[in-house]
Amino acid sequence: MGLQLYEYLEGWANFRIMRKEIIAVLIFGIVACGQKQECKKPRPVNPNGDSELALLMRDMFEESDSLKQLIIEGRLLTGLKKYEDIHSAIPTDPTVKGPVFEAFAEAYINSLKELESSDSSSVFKFNTMVDQCMNCHAEFCPGPKKRIKKLYIR
Ligand code: HEC
């Protein structure tokens, strides 16, 4: 009787321990699955996971938006960032880089230089700069085009 009770209790204890393990395995499985799915997305949600080029682009977007305000208010544009780093920044998709990308990047940087050296027709030159964003995006990264379009000064 004493032994049976002991075996019974031991069996129960084993089951409880196993249950914990089963739950642990299940939780691990769910977490692992979730992470896998995240990897399949084109870009990680985590800011630390974004590519150099993506971060540079966000900066470019912000600066272009500020420039737009300056131009609308008729203020002087000086000391524009030239974003030469666009040539060296590492993209999410390595196949993006190549002569075509370089040509678009150069056209964009030149349009910025044009914009900076203009004291008149800066609205036209600003919109020409936004054209360069759009041209490269049409080729490589159509996603943000809708957002970029809003930069145009109408
Ligand atoms: C020479 C090509 C090129 C030019 C010029 C260019 N882009 Fe991009 N842009 C890209 C590529 C490629 C990506 C994808 C970056 C990545 O995920 O690594 C990108 C990504 C972006 C993103 C998304 C960033 C994010 O949060 O992931 C925005 C916004 C953006 N660009 C805005 C702009 C704006 C505004 C301009 C002009 C001022 C511009 N781009 C000019 C190629 C270009």
Provide structural commentary.
The chain has helices spanning 2-40, 52-72, 99-116, 122-140, 145-149. The chain starts with a helix and ends in a 5-residue tail after the last helix. Mean pLDDT is 83; it is low at 33-41. The chain folds into two domains: 1-40; 49-149. The longest helix has 39 residues, at 2-40. It is rod-shaped, with a radius of gyration of 28 Å. Helix 2 runs antiparallel to helix 4 (122-140) and helix 3 runs antiparallel to helix 4 (122-140). With 154 residues, the chain is mainly alpha-helical. It binds heme C (HEC). The site of heme C has 26 residues, from helix 2, helix 3, helix 4 and helix 5.
Can you list the ligands bound to this structure? heme C
The helix tally amounts to: 5
- In total, the number of strands is 0
Order of helices and strands: HHHHH
Beta-strand content: under 5%
Radius of gyration: 28 Å
- Euclidean distance between termini CA atoms: 91 Å
The proportion of residues forming helix, as a percent range, comes to 55-70%
Mean pLDDT: 83
Unreliable sequence segments: 33-41
Task: Put the structure in a nutshell.
With 154 residues, the chain is an all-alpha fold.
What's the arrangement of secondary structure elements?
Elements: H1 2-40, H2 52-72, H3 99-116, H4 122-140, H5 145-149
Helix pairs in contact: 2-4, 3-4
The structure holds heme C.
Residues 43, 50-51, 53-54, 57-58, 60-61, 64, 91-92, 96, 101, 104-105, 108, 132-133, 136-137, 140-141, 144, 147-148 line the site of heme C.
